[in-house]
Design goal:
six-stranded mixed beta sheet; 6 helices; elongated; alpha/beta; single chain
Length: 174
């Protein structure tokens, strides 16, 4: 029971495309933000996000690594006012992006991941366009359900991978 992170990245990319259409933006550079280089989940999200923009008029910048220092992202955003949007692949990058966009009153679009109170506040305040949430309730519920079925001998599948999906959260759906 897990999130298919590459698919989740594609959903984030489609969400970004929708935001760009709404803003009537047809080309430009999008920044991709990751905390660390060696995290499989965020690497897969970036891979999926990139797939959505293949062959488009948008340029996806090289992936930028925060390295546990939110100020790196804030500085990067300040130094790239020409970027039209940013993708934050996890909570820490979402927070750094959202805080910088809010502080600078920028109109750059941010699509992010995770739903801490801080991320949701930035979403509500308009600094983040949308954020994607994994579905931990489904993971937990289905995990217990499958465990009970297995104990009873009714679940015999081995090495099954079950995608629990993601939910897109917008300001008006908080």
């Amino acid at each position: 029971l897990a999130t298919d992170n590459e698919l989740a990245g594609m959903i984030a990319g489609e969400t970004m495309k929708t935001a760009l259409i709404e803003a009537r933006i047809t080309s430009g550079t999008i920044g991709l933000m990751v905390n660390k280089d060696n995290v499989t989940s965020t690497a897969l999200r970036v891979k999926g996000f990139r797939k959505v923009f293949e062959g488009s008029d948008f340029t996806l910048a090289d992936t930028f690594f925060m390295e546990d220092d939110p100020q790196r992202i804030k500085t990067f955003v300040k130094e790239h006012p020409d970027y039209i949007a940013f993708f934050g692949s996890n909570e820490r990058t979402a927070l750094a992006l959202g805080e910088q966009i809010k502080d600078s009153a920028s109109k750059q679009i941010v699509i992010a991941f995770d739903t801490s109170d801080e991320v949701l506040t930035l979403l509500f305040e308009g600094a983040i366009y949308a954020t994607l949430q994994q579905k931990p309730q489904i993971m937990g519920y289905d995990g217990i359900r499958i465990a009970l079925e297995a104990i009873k001998g009714n679940y015999t599948e081995k090495n099954a991978v079950i995608d629990t999906g993601v939910k897109i959260i917008y300001k008006d759906s908080i």
